[in-house]
Write a structure and sequence with these properties.
Oligomer: single chain
Radius of gyration: 22 Å
Distance between the termini: 44 Å
Keywords: Membrane, Transmembrane, Transmembrane helix
Number of strands: 0
Protein name: Glycosyltransferase RgtA/B/C/D-like domain-containing protein
């Protein structure tokens, strides 16, 4: 227990340092933050025009980016932002106290909590020192902290995604309470940020692994997977209802600037957009050596720990990233890939343990 506390303290210190450095070196109000702020002021009781004016004045005064004059009134963007009510709701007291800049408080707190949960999840599969080392490596990349401590919903989605992974029956059988908690957490993910490809791929992959490797516990894993699936469905229904009368098709048409409404129009657009976006994304990711190291070591672990759950976790993380990329094939500087972190950290933790065991293994005695 004492060792776990020291590991958690190391992860907390590294995360806090990354967060403070990011706050001090960059402005954390992004274009997307405008919509979350408008909703927060709406929940605080401000009328639409007043709330918009407060946000526009704040953006112009601080010079964070060119203000989007259409803001909340732009219907195509309403589909993306209306269902994400969790951040505006949780930000109410902080925006009321600190003004528009208070929108960054909840994401920062969620980032710290998410990294501690990622560390905790890694200790389920590896030793405390290995889990702590892999978690610290994850926060060394400026790309991770950049998106997690700004006025965005990504750290909340990462926190909830990791909580879902921890609630799965790795060591203890699923109970009605944990099944209900899984449903609630996966539903809340849909109110923070739509990362459905990650959730579905992860739950499906670990369920398949459990059916194959832990057949005696298949009922427990199936119940847990069913609870998570119920939450995903409820979250999808919630998003659709809240986004009405707009549809995903309308959003995709807007995202492609009117060039792809049908499948026939979408395929040429994909052929043009995907290679450019992949090239730009790879260039940015390769510029961060801690992130590259984390990715490479996780792939190595898929080979060295192929008989464990590691390749299933990492494979499902890549499947989720691919799904998100197909929905929005743009360079995001690892922002859309953030939900991969729990799987990557676990994989690297297991690999570190394997390396340590190989180094300290005693040679077999030579027979006389």
């Amino acid at each position: 227990m004492r060792q776990k506390c020291w590991g958690a303290a190391a992860v907390l210190a590294a995360t806090a340092t990354a967060m403070i450095w990011t706050y001090a070196s960059t402005h954390q109000i992004f274009p997307d933050s405008q919509w979350y702020l408008i909703y927060t002021y709406h929940y605080l009781g401000y009328d639409k025009a007043h709330g918009e004016q407060i946000v526009l004045d704040y953006v112009r005064d601080h010079g964070t980016f060119k203000p989007y004059d259409y803001l909340w009134a732009s219907k195509p963007f309403t589909l993306s932002y209306r269902p994400r009510v969790l951040l505006p709701l949780l930000s109410i007291p902080f925006v009321a106290l600190f003004g528009p800049g208070g929108i960054v408080v909840v994401p920062g707190l969620a980032f710290v909590a998410a990294m501690l949960l990622i560390y905790r999840f890694a200790t389920v599969h590896a030793t405390v020192p290995a889990a702590a080392a892999a978690s610290v490596l994850a926060v060394l990349s400026p790309l991770v902290a950049k998106w997690c401590v700004g006025g965005l919903t990504d750290s909340l989605a990462l926190l909830l995604h990791t909580a879902m992974l921890l609630l799965l029956p790795w060591r203890k059988p699923a109970t009605p309470r944990t099944v209900a908690a899984l449903a609630a957490v996966t539903f809340l993910v849909g109110t923070a940020r739509v990362i459905t490809p990650y959730t579905v791929a992860t739950v499906a992959a670990v369920w398949c692994w459990a059916i194959w490797r832990e057949r005696e516990r298949w009922r427990s894993w199936t119940a847990a997977a069913a609870g998570a699936a119920a939450g995903v469905v409820a979250g999808a229904v919630w998003s659709k209802l809240l986004s009405a009368p707009l549809s995903s098709r309308d959003h995709f048409f807007s995202m492609t600037e009117g060039r792809a409404r049908t499948l026939g129009q979408a395929l040429p657009w994909y052929r043009e957009a995907v290679p450019t976006a992949l090239s730009k994304e790879a260039t940015v990711v390769l510029s961060s050596w801690p992130l590259v190291l984390l990715l490479v070591l996780s792939l190595v672990a898929c080979v060295t720990a192929r008989r464990t759950v590691v390749p299933w976790l990492v494979g499902s993380a890549w499947a989720g990233a691919t799904g998100i990329f197909l929905i929005a094939p743009f360079m995001t500087m690892f922002r859309y890939e953030l939900p991969m972190l729990p799987a990557l950290v676990v994989a690297v933790s297991v690999l570190v343990d394997q390396a340590v065991k190989g180094l300290v293994r005693q040679p077999e005695p030579v027979p006389e």
